[in-house]
Fold each of these.
Amino acid sequence: MTTAPGADELQLLLPVPDEDGAPFWEYAARGELRVQACTSCGRLRFPPRPCCPHCGSFESEWRLMSGRGRIWSYVLPHPPLLPAYAAQAPYNVILVELSDAPHIRLAGNLVASADAPLDSVDPSRLRIGAQVQVVFTETGGMTVPRWIPGKS
Amino acid sequence: MAATLKDATAIVGIGQTPFAKRLPASEKELACRAILAALADAGIAPGEVDAFASYTMEETDEVEVAKAIGAGDVTFFSKVGYGGGGSCATVGHLAAAIATGQATVGVAWRSRKRGSGPRPWKNTAVQLPTPGQWTRPFGLLRPADEIGMLARRYMHEYGATRDHLFNVAMACRNRANENPAAMMYERPLTREMYMTSRMISDPLCLFDNCLETDGALACVVVSAERARDCRHKPVYVHSAAQGLPSQHHGMVNYWNDDPLSGPAWTAARHLWKQADFGPADVDVAQIYDAFTPLIPLSLEGYGFCGRGEGAAFTEGGALEIGGRLPINTGGGGLSEAYVHGFNLINEGVKQLRGTSTAQVPDAATCLVTAGEGVPTSAILLRA
Ligand SMILES: [Zn+2]
C-alpha cells in the first residue's frame, strides 16, 4: 500500500451477527457472556444454531457463564494484514476454553485492560493453560468480549 | 452399473500452463490452455468431452470452458465446495459419473491468478456472518492465522517443533529444486533461511506458507476400458473419498471436541475401506500443503503413523526421495505452485507414469489429498 489508510480502514472489523448469533452480541452489550443451551437436554452448543445436534430440540436458552477461562492456543499475526490490524501487529489472538464448559472455546484477544490495544500484553506472557477473565469493550457501536490475565 | 469405483476409471491425460507470480493471460485462457494440453496428452478430441468437474473459488465455469474448447454435449458437471478441499473430489466425481455411465470423457481443472490477483482473505466483510462473526473481529483474518492456532496447540500437545515444520518445507523445496516447472526451481532453502525468516502468524513463518501463484492445470478421466487405447499408461483411480466430519466447523475447527482431528481422518476411513492396500503400501504421496502443519496432521489422519506422531514421522529424511514416504515430489503448494492442490493430482500421475522430475523408483501406488482443515477429499492412484 502506498497510500495511508483512511479512518474507515483503521476501524477493526465488527461482528456481523446472524439470526442465531444475535443474542450472544446482545448479551455482550449488557456485559454478560452467555452461551446457547438446549432446554430439552441441557447441552451447551457453540457456535449457536437453530437446533440441538444431540436431541434435535429447537428450544434453547442463553446460559450465563462465569467469564473465566484458560488459553487453549494462540497466534501472533504479522503483516500483511488489514490496515487496522497491521497498525497493532504483532498482536495476539487467543482461543479461550471456558472454565464452565471447556469444550466451548472462544476466539478473542488478551489485553491489559478492556479498552487497551490488541498488542497491550507482552507476548512472552502468553501461555497455553494461562487463566484469563472476560471483559467487554465497546467499539463502533458493538460490544465485543476481550480477555485480561486472570488469577493464576 | 459398477458396484465399485475401484480401478473402473483412469486418468489418461494431464496438462498445465507455466507457473509464475504473474502471467498475462486471463484465468479463462489459462484454463483452456491447460485443458487442451491435457486432452492432447490423452489423444482425445475436445468434441468428445461430455463431463466437467471443478471446485469452488474457480472463476471459470463449465459453460465458458465448454464453448471455448469445443466440447460436445455435456451430460455431467459438478462443482465441489470448500476451495482446496475439493481438488481430489473432482476426479472422484468424474470417476463416479463415468463408472455409472453418465458420461464418457471427463475433464477436471483448476485455473488461478492468485499471484497477481487480490488475496481472498482481504475480502473479509462478506465472511463476517457465521462463522466469521466469531473470529474475524479478533484479528483471526487469514487461513495462516486459523491454521497457526491449531499448529501451536499441536506443538504444545505433542512436542512438535519448528524443526519438524522445517522438515516439511525442506522436502518440498528439495523436490522443487529438481523440477524446472516449479516456482522455486534452483532456489534452495536452508535451515538458517527458515529459522530467520519473517513470521506470518507466529508460530508460522514465511516458509510455512504456500506460494501465491498464477497458473492452471487439468486432467482427463475415462473408463478403464477406454484408457487402454490412450497414448499413455493408464493411471487408475483406485479409491476416492470426501470427508466432512461430524460437528466440523471448517478451517476454524476449534469448537469440535477434538480440533486436531480434521477431515483427513474421515476421508481416510472411507478411502482405505474401498482399497486393496493400506498406508504401508503407498509408494509416494502428494499431500495438500497450503501450510506445513497440514503435513503431520495429514500423515496421522491418513494412517501413516499414530495420533501425535506426525511431527516425529518427518525426522531422518522420511519425506525425501528414498525416505519412508516421499511426498510432494513436484514441490507441492509450498514450492512448486499453489493452485489449490491440482498440481498434486498431476504429479501423482507423473509418478505412476514414471515421468516425475523426482521419480520414486517403480512407484505403483500414490495417495493424493486435498485441503485439510476444510471439508476435504482424497484419491488413491495406482499404475
Ligand atoms: Zn438437546
Amino acid sequence: MTNPTLAAGAVERHLRARRDTGRGLLMPYVTGGITPGWTDYLRAFAAAGADAIEVGLPFSDPTLDGVTIQQAGHTALARGASTRRILADLSGMPDLDVPLVASTYYNLVLHDGPEAFCAALRRAGVDGLIVPDLPVHEADELTEVAAAAGIELALLASPATPEPRLAEISSRSRGFVYAVSLMGTTGERAALAASAAELTARIRRGTDRPVLLGFGISTPDQAREAGRHADGVVVGAAVVRRVLDGAGPDDLRAFVATLRRALDQEV
Amino acid sequence: MQDVLPWREPVPLDGTMGEPRARGRFGEYGGRYAPESLVEACREVDGAFREAWADPGFRGALARLLAEHVGRPTPLTPARRLSEALGVQLYLKREDLTHTGSHKINNVLGQALLATRMGRRRLIAETGAGQHGVATATAAALLGLEATVFMGERDIERQALNVFRMRMLGAEVVPVTTGSRTLKDATSEAMRHWVGATGDSHYCIGSVVGPDPYPWMVREFQRIIGDEARGQCAAELRTGVPDYVVACVGGGSNAAGTFAGFADTPARLVGVEAEGGAGAARGRLGVLHGCRSLFLQDDDGQITQAHSIAAGLDYPGVGPEHAHLRDLGRARYVTVTDDEAVGAAVRLARTEGIVPALESAHALAWVIREAGGGDLPAGSTVLMTLSGRGDKDVSTLKELL
Ligand SMILES: Cc1ncc(COP(=O)(O)O)c(C=O)c1O
C-alpha cells in the first residue's frame, strides 16, 4: 500500500500537518454568494484560525440541508449566485493560506460535466470537494476526474453506514473523511449527538486520514466536545444563521474565534 | 409542442421493462444518488422488496387487498361516442374506478404491505395532486400504520378536498413552504424528513422516481395496470394488441405500469407530459431526489419549476426508465397544454359521462389532437390509461369554465 501522506493532496497535507501539531481542526462553512461582499467572510474565517473553509455552491433542491442552509441557498440564488459567479469571486481573492473546499449537490457537477466542473474549481483555487448526494458506490465517475484535476473528493460517512462500506469510504475519501454526526439534516442542535463519538471511533479504527465531524455542531462547547472524538469540526448552520441575521465579517470572525479557542483549550 | 426525438419504428423489446441492470440502472439513468445516511435504508427496501416479490405469500396478500379493497380488476371501457367522432378506436383503462380514485393506490398498498413486513410503523409520503397522499393515508388506516404526508402549500390550496380526505383518514399533512411550494419541494422535504426517521418509518415514494430500488419497485407495483389491460385487449380487440398505448406522465408511474404490459408487443408507447412539466421531452441529464434522469434545468444547472394545471404533472423531471425508453426510441414523449387538457376533460365528460383527472386529460388531449392526423392514423386502436377521476379537480375547473 502506498503511503497516504505521500499520495495526499493539498487539503490532506495541510490538515495532517496541523493535526500533528496537536491542533483541533476547524472548517467553517458559508454559502457562496449569500451577500454582496461574501468573500470577506472567508478572510474573517482565515483570520480567526480556520484550518480549511467550506464554500457551498447553492443548489435549488438541497435534500440534505435543514432550514438555515436551505434559506441561505435560496437567498444566494435569488441574488443571482451561480457556480460560475461564485468561482469568479474566489478567483479574484488573494491567497488565504487556507485550503478551500467546495460543497454542492451532484446535479451541478453533472451539469457542466465532472471534468469541466473540476477544472473550474481548480482554476478558482479550490482544492477539495464535498458532494452530499454522491455516495461512495456512485462516485466512480467523479473520483478519477477529480484526482486528475487535483481536487480532493471527500466522502461522507454516516452513523447508519455499516462496516465494509465504512472501510471503503475511509479508503476512497480524499482530504479527510466527513463524519456526519447524526441521522438528520444540517442545522443547529442543542447537543452533540451520541452517534458522533461512536462513528468517529469506528472510522478511526480503519484509517489515519483526518476525520472531521459535521452536522449540528453549533457552539464552542459542542466543538470542544467533538474535538475530543474527531480531528476537528465543520460548523455550517451556526455560521450561516448569523450571516442571515445580518452579522458582518467582524462578528463572524469573533464567533469563529470562540470556536477556535474552544478547540485549542481541548489540547 | 415539438417532440424531441423522431418517431421510430416500434421495436418489441423483450426484457426492456424487466429488472434494472446492476446498481439500479436503466441505460445510463437511475442509480442511488442518496445521502449516505439513506443508503442503508434504500438497501433494506431493496432486499425486502426482492424477497417479498419472490414470495407467493406476499403476492397473494397484495392481490387479495387489490381485489377486496381497491376493486381490481378495473374495467376496460370502449369510449364509443368519442371514438366515432375521432375516427379511432379508443379504449380506456379505468384506474379512476379504483378505491380512492387513482392508480396511486396500487403502488401504495404494495409498499405499505412491504413496510409492515419490514416492521415499520409509519409511512412518509410526498404528494402533489393529493392522490398519492390520499392513497397513503388510506393504506395506513387499512394496515394500522401512521402516515405523514408532505405537500406544497400551493397544492394544499388547489387540492383542498384531498387535504381534508387525508386528515379524515388520520394522516398528518405537513405544509411545505419552500421553493415552488409544489411537488418538487414536497419531495425534497419528505427526503429530508426520512433521513431522521429511517429507524421506524418507510418512505413511500409515489412515482417511478427516487433512488434505486424505487423506480423499479413502483413500476412493478403498477404493472398490474398493463398486465390487466393486455389481457383485456386480447379479449376485446380484434388485433389483440392495440396500435397505441397512451398514458400521462408526471413522474411516470401510471405510464410505466401501463407500458410494462405492452413492452414486448409492437404497440407504440406514448407518454404525454404537461407542456410546463416536460421532463422527458425537454429535460436535461441531471440528478435529483436520488436518481439520475432528465430534469428541467436552467443554464446554471438549477432545477426549474414546473407549471401545470394538473398538480400531479407539476414535477420537473421524469423517472429514469422513461428517460431510457426515450433514448431507445421504444416510447415517445409528447406534450400538451393546460388548455388542451381542460378541453379534453370537458369533451370526455360530455361524450362518455366520465370526468377525468386533469392529469389523465393530458393523455386524452394528445389522442384528440392527433387522431386522424399523421401521428395517430384513422382507424388505429388506442389504449389509454385513465389514471384518475376528476373529483379533486372540480374546483379548478369551476374557476375556468
Ligand atoms: C390522477 C393522476 N394521474 C397521474 C399522475 C401522475 O403521476 P404518475 O406519472 O406517476 O402516474 C397523478 C399524480 O399525482 C395523478 O394523481
Amino acid sequence: MTFRRFARKYLVGIIAILVSVVVFLVPFIFVVLQAAKDPKEAGLMGFTLPSTWQVGQNFFEVIQTNNYQLLAAFINSFILTIVSVVIMVVFSAMVGYLLQRKRSKLNHVANFFVLAGLIVPPAVVPTIWVLQGLGIFDTLPGMILIEATLGLSFSILLFRAFVATIPRELDEAAVIDGAGPMRLFFRVILPLLRPVVITVVVVQAVAVFNDFTGPLYFLPSSDNPTVQLTLYNYQSQSVSQYNLLFMSILLITIPPLIMYIFFNRQIVAGMTSGAVKG
Amino acid sequence: MTTTAVRIDPANPTKAPGRSRGDKRRGVRSPYPSWFYIPAGVLYLVFFALPTFSSFYFALTRWTLFSQQFIGLGNFVQFFQTPALTQGFINTLIYGFLTSAAKVVLGLALALLLTSPIFGRGYLRAVVFFPVLVSTVGVGLTFKSLLDPFHGVVNSVLGFFHLPQPGWYTDPHLALLTVAGVDIWKGVGIATLIFMAGIVAIPSEYFEAARVDGAGSWNVFRNVTLPLVRPAMATVIILSLIGGLRSFDLIWAMTNGGPGFSSDVIASVIYKQYQAGFFGLSTAGNVILFIVVTAIMVPVQWLLNRREAEL
C-alpha cells in the first residue's frame, strides 16, 4: 500500500513533468533560442543552440525596425490596455453591484443583455460604421471604447457573483453614517471588491493586450499600431528575419508573463469564485 | 440572494422599509441608484447593440459604408452558393465542437491529475495555465515554425524515428485539425483551472464515504466526482463552444484560411469579404455566425442549466 502510494505520487508526477516539458516547455524554449540566433541559423528553424548568442543585438535591431515601430506599438498597447480595463472595471462593478443588491424590473433586462454580450459575436463592419459616424474610427479612443464594451459582460458576471459575499449590513451601516450612493459604492463597496477587481484586471488586461482581431478591424492604418498587429505585419513583410520575428514574440510575451507571476494566486482564486458559480 | 435583508430608511429608521417608490416620494434616495446602469449601458448600446441590430439591415444590402443598395436576401444566397463559403460554415462547426470536446476531456483529466497529491504539482499547474496568457498570434507563428513541413522540429523528430512527416498546415485535409490542435494546446489551461475549482469545491466527506463503502478509484470518479463537477463542466462547455465557434485569430495567424479554403471558418470568411470591400456580404456572414452561435448556445445553455437544477 505504501509503495503504491509512493509510486503514484512520484512516478505519475515525474511522468507528468516529462510530458509537460515536451508539450509545454519545448515551444517556449524554441522561441527563446530562435530569438538569440543570427538570421541564417534562425531560418533553419532547428531546435539547436545558437552558435553565437546575439540576444542584445537582436533586441536592439527589432526595436529600431521601421522607425521604432515596436516601441510605438508597445506604448499604444499599454495605453489601450490600461484605459479600457479601468473603464471596464468601474462600469461593470457598478452594474454587478446593482444586479446583486437592487431588485428591480431592470434586472431581467440587464441580465439578458449580459448573457447576450457573452454569446453574440460582435458585428464588425456595422461597428466600423458606428465608429465612423462618431468620428473615432481608426483612433485609439475608438479602440479603447470597443475593448471596454466587449469586456463588460464577462466582468459583470464575475462582479455579480462576488458582491453576494459582501454583507448588506455594511451598506446599511454606511447609509446610517450618512454616506450617499456614490460614497457607499466607491468608498465602501469597491475596496471590498479588491480580490475580484484584481482578477478582472489581470484577465481583461491580458485579453486586451493580446487582442488581434479588434485592432485588425478597428485600427487598420499604420498610425496607431498595437503590438499584436506589428507582430502580424512583421511576419508577412520580412520572411527572412526569423530571429527578429521570434525576438518580437518573446518581447510581447513578457508583459502578460510578469502579470501572471505577480498575480498567479489571485487569478486562480478569483476565476474559481466567479467562473464556477457564473 | 437574500430576500430578508432589511433596508433602513435613514429619514425614518423605525419604519419598515417600503418599496423604493415610497422612498422617492419622501425625497429619500435609494442607496442603489439606477443610474449606475447608465455608463455601462451607454457603451453597450452604442458599440454593441446598435451594430448588432443594424447588421440585420446591412446584411440585406450591397454596401460600401458610403452608399447602400437594398438587395434582399442576395447576400445570403451568394453565401450558400459559393463552395468556399459553405466550407467555412462546415469548418466552423467542426472546429467549435472538436476544440470544445477536447478541452472538456483533457481539462477534466488534467484537473484530476493536478488535484491529486502528485510530485511537482505547483510547477505543473503553472505550466499548463501559462499558454492561456500568451498572445494568440505569437502562439500561431511559433507553431507554424515548429510544424514546418520541411525543417520543422516536429517533422525532424518524426523523421528521426522513420515516421511519416505530414504537411501539418499545407495538407488541405489536415490544416483545420492542426489549427484546432494548437487551439486546444493553448486553451486547455482555462478548462483545467475551472475543473480544478469544481473538484476542490466537492466536500471531502463524499469521497471518504465512497471509500468506506468500498468504491474503487473508477467508481469514485464515476459516481462522485463526475456528477458533482457538472457545474464546472457546464462552464467549460459554454465558454469553449462560444470561443471555438467564433475563433479567428489563431486560424488567421497560422493558415489565413488556407490552403485553398480548407481551414476557413465563418469568422475568417467575414474578414476576407471585408478586406475585399464586400461589406454587405461580410455583414451577412456576421448574421450567419450570430444565428449559428445562438442556435447552438441557447439549447446547450438550457440543457446544462436544467441538469444543474435537478441536482
